[in-house]
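User: Could you check the structure of this?
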Amino acid sequence: MSRTMKKKARAALDYPDTWASRAKHSAYRTANKVGPMAGMARDSAIGMAGNARDYAGSARDVASSRLEDARYWAAPRLDHAAVSFEEQIAPRVAAMMAEMARRIDPAPPIVRRRTRMPMMVLLGGLAMGAIGFALYKRNARQWADTMSDTKEAVRGKVEHVRHRAQQAGETMEQKADEMQNRMS
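Assistant: Sure, the predicted structure tokens are below.
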């Protein structure tokens, strides 16, 4: 084959002459192939982000309502415990401490009374702590029972929302298939 024919064949195929121009040409071809795929991926990601935002908003609403329910439940019980302690337990502890003081005190000198006073305060504090601990344990059990009921209710609502979301996804897929069939 002659030299002139080779030049004509090269000119007809229009290959770039330099390495940089070949790389640029290859990049253009790749971009033309990848561009539509990137657009589809972007559209899919936007749809998924919208779904995630909706699910997060729903979960936030459920959690905030449950937290508010818990606060409504806890406030009167704490108030009742405070009133109960003030009206029932505190007078009994005070009477018990006064009786103990009366029994112990055989009219000791003032100096001696000062040495026993810290012990009586310590014993009274221990008695009040034990009573408070008993009340705390009782209320903690009630709180735990209520929270387990609340947990089950929230779990049920989450399952319901998940089921509804799945149904909505299936419905959307069916409608997309119908639209695609109509367009074909």
